[in-house]
Protein 1
Amino acid sequence: LGRPHRVEGVVVRGAQRGREMGYPTANVETLPHTAIPADGVYAGWLVVEGESMPAAISVGTNPQFEGTERTVEAYAIDRVDLDLYGLHVAVDFLAYIRGQERFDTLEGLLERMAEDVRVAKELLG
Ligand code: FMN
C-alpha cells in the first residue's frame, strides 16, 4: 500500500483484564465495514492527538479467555499509566508478528506477550 494500514475509532472499555496483566490496552471501537487486518499480533503505532506511540497490537477474539467478540487492542509500549477512554485514536499496522493463540496457562500468554513487545520494539526502531 505504500503506507501502514490505519484503523480509527473511540477507545472503549474492554474486559478490564489488561491492566492487571501488566499490558493495559486501548480497545478501539471501529465503525461497521472497517477493514480490520487478519486476527493476530502486530507491531505498529497508537496515534493519540498527533502523538505516535510504539505499540503491540492484538486483533481477535482473545481465545485465551474464550472471547467471542473481535477486538482491536493496542498496548502502547511501556505506557502503563495512559487513560485514553473516550478519545478518538488511530492504530497504524506496520508488521504482522504472529497469530492469536491459546496457551496452556496465563503465564504462557504473558511470556509470549513480553516477547511480542521485544519484537515490536525492534521492528519499530
Ligand atoms: N489474547 C489471546 O487470547 N491470545 C493471544 O495470543 C494474545 N496475544 C496478545 C498479544 C499482545 C501483544 C496483546 C497486547 C494482547 C494479546 N492478547 C491475546 C489479548 C489479551 O488477551 C487482552 O489484551 C487481554 O485479555 C485484556 O483484554 P481487555 O483489554 O479486554 O481487558
Protein 2
Amino acid sequence: EDGYDLWLRYEQASEDLRPDYRKQISAIAILGDSPTIAAARQEMATGLAGILDKTVTVGTSVPRGNTLVAGTYDALSDLDLDRADVGPEGYAITQMRRDGRILTIIAADSDIGVLYGTFGLLQHMLQGEPIAGIDLVSRPATQHRLLNHWDNLDRYVERGYAGQSLWDWHKLPDYRDPRYTDYARANAAIGVNGTSLTNVNANAEVLTPQYLEKAAPLADVFRPYGIKVYLTARFSAPIEIGGLDTADPSNEEVQAWWEAKAEEIYNYIPDFGGFLVKANSEGQPGPQDYDRNHADGANMLADAVAPHGGIVMWRAFVYAADETQDRAKQAWEEFVPFDGQFRDNVLIQVKNGPIDFQPREPFSPLFAGVEDTKLMMEFQITKEYLGFATHLAYLGTMWEETLDAPAQRTEEGETLTVTDMMVSGNDAYTVSGMAGVANIGTDRNWSGSIFDQANWYAFGRLAWDPALDAETVAREWAAMTFTPDRAFLDPVVAMMMGSREAVVDYMTPLGLHHLMDTGHHYGPGPWVDDLDRPDWNPAYYHKADEDGIGFDRSSSGSDAVSQYAGFLREEWDDPETTPDELLLWFHHLSWDYEMRSGRTLWEEIVHHYQRGVDEVEAMRETWDGMAPYVDAERHAQIADFLAIQEKEARWWRNACLAYFMEVSGRDLPDGYEAPPHDVDHYKSLYFPSAPGNG
Ligand code: BDP
C-alpha cells in the first residue's frame, strides 16, 4: 500500500454490502465501440472484480439476469429511457425493472459521459453506498477543468514536492509509460478534462517539432479519457524559435508566425486544447514589452487557435515592481480597463486571491470587476505556501471559502457568490473553467503525501461542481482512499476539515500574509526586508513596528478595498466590521486594538499561533488512534509527516512570535510558553535542501 492507486483502489465491498451488489449486478454490458467506451469497459471490469471480489466479464450486448447496462441514450434506445438533462459530459444512473429483472443503467449523451458515469457508479460503491434504487444525475458546471503542471522540460517541477515531472521527454515519443494511462484514469475519475503540460514560466522549445512530436503521444493516451492537452506559450517564442526580431502582437509577421505555429500543433494534436500564457509577470515577456496591452496579446493567440477550436487562458497574475503600488490592486488595474475587449475564446485565469496563493486571502476582486470578460479560477493544489507535502492541509475548505464568498449584489438585492460570477454570471457551462496547479510528480503516491491526494481529488470534484461542500468531498475521498467505516471517517474528516485553519493559525493568522522565507518559501521569514523588490519582502506585507501591525488597504490606506462591491467595501473598510480572518489584510492596527474576543490584538495573535500548534498536536493524536483502520505502511508515513508538521508548526510559532515580540517590544501574555530562542537564532537558519531553493 504505497498510495499509487489513489481513489481507484477497488477494495472489496464490506460484508453487508457485497451480497447485495452481487445480486444487483450479475452481468454487465457496456454498449458502443469507441476507445472511450473501451476504457469504460476496462475500468468497470477491473473495478467490479475488486469490489464484488469475483471475476466479471463486461459484454457488449445486454445479457440475461440482473444487469448493469451502460451506453449513450442512442445506444440504449431499446430501453425507452426518459432522457435526463445530462449535457455533453454528464450522466444519469438509474434502476428499472424489466421482465422480472433489475437493470442498473448508466446513460449519457456522449461516450465520455458513459465513462464518467462508470467512474460515478464505482465510486458510489467504494463509498459504501447501496445501489438498490439508485437514481442520480451528475453534470459538470464548468466546461474547462484543467490541471496546470508547472513542469520544466528538464523534468524539474517548479513548486513540486512529489518528485520529477511525469513527462519523460527523453523516452517519448517511443515509450509510453503506462503511468500516463493511470494519470488519465485518475483524472477522468474526478472529471478533469484538460492538462497543461508545461510550466507557466515557459520554455519556447516545447513548441518546436522536437517536442510536439513527444506531446502528441501523451494526447493520444489521454484522449479516450476525455482529456485534452494544452501547452504554455512563451510570448517571445517568435523570436526564440521563429527567427523573427520581434514578438509585437500588432506585427503581421508575428501574427502569421503564430497562425502557422497553431496549424502545425494541430497537425500533431488534432484536438489540442490551446495555450496557457503568463505574460508580463515576474520577468516573463509579453505584449507590454511593445506598448501593447493584455487584450492585444491574448487576442493574437486566440485568433491563431480559433479556427481549430482552441482557447487561450491568459493569466491575470501580474504585478509591477513599484513601491508606491499595493500589489493586491494591480491585476484589477491591468485588466478591468480592457473588459469586453477579449475574444470569445479567451479566458482570463485569475488566482483565487489578489496576492499569491496564501493560506488565506480574500477572493480576487477581479471576479466581480468585469462584466464582459470570461474568467476562470486558478487554485494552487501544490502547497507552496501551506507546508509543502509534509503538512496535512486539506484545501477543500479554502476553495469552498472562495467559491462561496458573496461577491456582488444585483439591483434586485440578490447576492451572487464568486462561483456565480464565474459560472452563471457568464454564459454558464459553455465558457467557464477552473485550473489547479498540479501537485503531481513521479513519487509512487503521485502527490508527495497521501493526504495531498485529497487536494487533487477535491480540485477535480469542485471544478465539476463548485457547489459541492468541502466536507462531502473529504468524506468521499477518505472513504475511497482508506475505508468507508464511520468509526474512521468521522474523526478523520473532522481532522481534514480543521487542518487548513491550523496552518493559517501557525503561519499567518488574522489576515497576515506572505511571511514565508525567501525563494523556496519554506518556513518563516517575517523579518526579511532586504530583497530587491519591495513586494517580495514579508516586511512589506505585515508592516509591523512598535506601534502596530497590518497592511492598510482601507480607504485611508491603499484603498484596495474600493475594488470590491459596495456592500463588501463598507464591511471591510472598517476594522470593527471586518471579519477577524481578514483584519490585518485590510487594516493596520495598534497592538492594543481591542478584538471581539476581549483580547488585545497582540494577545489574539499569540493565541492564534498557539492554537495552530495545539491543533496539530490534536491531529497527531487523532491519527494515532486510526491505526486499526489503515495499513501499516500508509499509517506510518502519515504519522511521520504529522510529526514533521508539529515540529514545523512550533518553529513557525516561535520564530514569528520571537520576531513580533522584538518589533513590538512586548512580552507574551501569561500562560504562553516563551520561544526557546531569540529572533537572531531563527534568522540564522538556512535551508540548502529545501525544494525550490535556487
Ligand atoms: C508564485 C510562485 C512562482 C510562480 C508564480 C506564478 O512562487 O514559482 O511562477 O507564482 O504563478 O506563487 O506564475
Protein 3
Amino acid sequence: MSVFVSGATGFIAQHIVDQLLEQDYKVIASARTEAKANELSKNFNNPNLTTVVTGDMSKLDAFDPAFKQYGSQIKYVIHAASPVTFEVENTERDILIPAVNGTKGILESIKKYAANTVERIVMTSSVAAISTFSESLDPKAFANEDSWNTYTWESAQVSPIDAYFGSKKFAEEYFWEFLEKNKDTLNIKASTVMPVFVFGPQMFDSSVKSKLNVSSEVINKLIHTPVDGKISPSLAKFIHVKDVAKAHVLAMQKDELIGKRLLLSEANYNSQDILNYLNNDFPVLKGKIPVGEPDQTAEGKPSKDITYDNSKSRELLGFKFRSLKQAVDDTAAQVLKHEGRI
Ligand code: NDP
C-alpha cells in the first residue's frame, strides 16, 4: 500500500517523500505541473516513487484523477500542499482559495475514490493557524496545541501575511470538521502538524536557486548581505526541516498521535543568532557579511515575540529536535557549496 503526498515538490514535502522512501514505503507524489513531476522523479530516481499531476488545486476536482487511478492503493495521505507566498496580487484568489479548496478537494477525492482504503491522513497546518499575525509578534501573547486564530474570511484579506495566517486556520478547521461530519462513512484517523519557521537544506542541491522558499530565504538573505548592508530583521522560532518531515511520518504511524495537533518549535531565534553561526562556522563569510551585535541574540532567552507551549507535542513525538546551529549550518553549507565558495 502507498502513501499519497500532495505538494510533493515543496521544500518540506520533498524531505517527507525522502524519509518515506527511506522506510521502504511506496509513494504517490503530486505536483502542480508535468515539468515539476518529471524533475521530482529524476531527482529521487526511485522505483517506489510514482508522480501525478494535479494542476492548480483551487479547482475542487484537482485530485480526482489521481485518486481515481491510484485510490485503491492508498492507505496513508499526507496533505502538504498550500500556497506559501506573500507576493500575490489578490489575497483571496491566490492564498485563501487554493489553501481551502486544496483541502476540500483532496478530502472529497478520498471520499469518492478511496473511502475504503485510506486509514490515516496527516495535514501540514502551521503555527499560523493558532494566532493572528499581530499576536505572533506580541511578547504578551501565548498559544499552544489547543489555540486557533481569530481571522474571519474578510479580515484575512487585509494583507498577504494575514491571508496566509487565515488560510492555514480555515483549511485546518475544514479538515477536522469534514472528518468529524463524515466519521460514519470514512474511518480515517487524522493528525495535523503545525511547524514554526522551517529551516534546513533543500532536499536536492539542484534546487538551490538565488532565491529560496520563504523560510529558507531568511538564512539565504543573510548569507548574501554585504558587510555594511542592512540586516533584515527576523525574530521568531525555528524547527529543522528533517524534524518536520519526521513528525509527519510518525503522525501517520503512531496511534498516540491520532487526533493530535502537533506544534513543532525548537527555540527562539533572531537574525543575530543566524549571523553569529554564519560568521563563526564559515570562514569564507568572515568580512563579507555583517557582524551585527553578537550578544543581541534570542536563542535560549525569554521570548520577545509570542510564547508557544509545545510541551505536549514534544512528549508525544518523543524525539529531540535538531539545534539552530545545525539548521543554519546545513542550509549555509548547501548554498555556499552550490556557489562554489566552499
Ligand atoms: P513550498 O512553497 O516549498 O511548497 C508548497 C507546495 O504546495 C508546493 O509543492 C506547491 O507547488 C504546492 N502548491 C501551492 N499552491 C498550490 C496550488 N494552488 N495548486 C497546487 N499546488 C500548490 O512551501 P513549504 O514546503 O515551506 O510548505 C509546505 C507546507 O508547510 C505548507 O502547507 C505550509 O503552509 C506549511 N508550513 C511551512 C512552514 C515553513 O516555514 N516553510 C512553516 C509552517 C507551515 P509548486 O511547487 O508548483 O509551487
